[in-house]
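Task 17 of the worksheet. Students: predict the tertiary structure of the chain below and write it out as structure tokens. Keep your answer in the requested format; marks are given for formatting as well as content.
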Amino acid sequence: MTGTHDLPGDAARHRPWPLCRRCCGIALDLGSARTRVWIAGKGTVVDVPTVTFPGTGAVHPVQRGTIVDTPGCSRMLRRLLGHRLPRFTRPMVIVTTPVLDGVAYRTRARAAVEVLRPRSVLTVPSARSIALAADADMSRPLVVVDIGAHLTEAVLLCDGAVTDAHRTAVGTSDLGETTTPEQIVEAVVAMLTAIRRHDRTSLAAGALRRGILLAGGGALRPEITHALTARLKAPLRIVPAPHTAAVRGAARFLQAAHTHPSTCGPLPPVARPR
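Model answer:
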């Protein structure tokens, strides 16, 4: 995870959620097709199309895994969350990010969430969030494939860190006259082949033999999963509720970060009854 704001010297002291009354926390998955938000104590409260309405028509501020309209994202987040957050609190925010968009995506995402007046913002790669949501063993090399609506990523994680990653700008929303399930499968196979070819150790090969962790809306499409299983000849492990795995994993990161000594001081002493 990457921190983006320095906390005050007298960092606030917090109890674990839901006991903490001094702040709130938000896990945010800002996808090209859908935005999903988890709020501490409330669970997933938002699962809506990623769209804003600045004038007479709809505008999509995130396209193919890239934030193209930061002010539009801010307007959308204000509309979706402004009335859901406790008054006079500054939330801790965890944002999932595509692995290969790097600094540009994180910078724009941080700018977009400033509308929520966060006290801190952390970012986490979507592949790592997915692995956490699946309770995967991240002490061993792991391959995560995320087939989204507009973007597909294949990522090799070692000890939870991204070792190699590939992406293709195609997803389930492209299925139709110009894109077939077989083309998405071919793209995934090509990315996995590249990961194995680029790895000069046996980490990728071992991870592929143990099985591929599959998430995203594509994991709900039998025509894709069956074809992948046949082509890869390797175990395919589908994450429970794969379309919401990223935000659920981010929520778990958020819960851990909330009480970590680096982001909040020790718990206040418990008052004893007189």
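Marker's comment: The domain at 2-7+14-128+245-258 is CATH 3.30.420.40 (Nucleotidyltransferase; domain 5). Helices lie at 70-81, 102-113, 126-133, 181-198, 203-210, 222-232, 245-258.
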